[in-house]
Specification:
The chain is an alpha/beta fold and 243 residues long. 40% of the residues lie in helices and 15% in strands. α1 packs across α6, α3 packs parallel to α4 and α4 packs parallel to α5. The longest helix is centred in the middle third of the chain and has 27 residues. The radius of gyration is 19 Å and the shape is globular. It starts with 16 loop residues before the first strand and ends with a strand.
């Protein structure tokens, strides 16, 4: 009697759900596209849902589904509504990319910048990322897996001493500090938290002259998909850089 054929192990694909804030255009849109190309279900966050729906239609046919969701990271009610919907619909969230951003002010200087502008930049970059991360963490803890990527900037590094972009610079520096603190708290939980500088990218905010959007997005996607334990770091193109 012959032995039954030995069955080789089969790699079972892991189902992942990702949320990208500020993803209806520019860097966030490209991050959503690259994540969907890797087979993830991507929730494309947009303050204006119509613009989000339009952006999601452009990605129809990608290996992973892309679903537009309304998300203004400065509004707690929208964040709360979204986390409840994700819980009911998917029961999990594996990747969070805190990309929503604005208030790039290269022509400004600290002495004359209005505090209102700084407050708005902080509300989006720091408090928006904080608000969204805190809301989504229970969905990651449930499966002991998560990747939180805070899209930062080299101009927020402590080694950068330029006087321009004060609101943007200070808010990104604060985001870096939050990244390190959250990563330390979550050590050993299976949830990794990193900041990524995409570099100067040719987007509506960055303006012409920057490198292709796909190159800047690739470093963010790397941090969103990294399999090995990599947490509490600041990266550009997959390489660690100084805080």
């Amino acid at each position: 009697m012959s032995r039954p054929a030995r069955r080789l192990p089969v790699a079972i694909p892991v189902y992942r759900v990702a949320l990208v804030s500020g993803a209806n255009r520019g860097l966030g849109f490209e991050v959503a596209r690259q994540l969907s190309e890797r087979g993830m279900t991507v929730l494309l966050g947009a303050r204006d849902l119509d613009k989000g729906l339009h952006a999601a239609r452009k990605l129809a046919g990608a290996p992973g589904d892309v679903i537009a969701v309304q998300l203004d990271v400065t509004r707690q009610d929208q964040v709360d509504t979204l986390v409840r919907w994700i819980d009911v619909t998917y029961g999990r969230l594996d990747v969070l990319v805190n990309n929503a951003g604005a208030y790039y002010d290269p022509g400004a200087n600290p002495a004359s910048t209005e505090i209102a502008s700084v407050r708005e930049a902080m509300d989006t970059h720091l408090f928006g990322s904080w608000r969204l991360s805190s809301a989504m963490l229970p969905l990651m803890r449930r499966h002991r897996y998560g990747r939180i990527v805070n899209v930062s900037s080299g101009c927020g590094a402590s080694t950068s001493d330029s006087g321009n972009c004060p609101a943007y610079r200070v808010s990104k520096s604060a985001l870096n500090t939050y990244t390190r603190a959250l990563a330390r708290e979550l050590e050993g939980s299976g949830i990794q938290v990193n900041a990524v500088c995409p570099g100067w990218v040719a987007t509506d905010m960055g303006g012409p002259g920057g490198r292709p959007v796909a190159e800047g997005a690739a470093g963010i996607v790397w941090a969103a998909c990294v399999p090995e334990p990599v947490t509490g770091g600041f990266y550009r193109d997959g390489q660690r850089i100084a805080w």
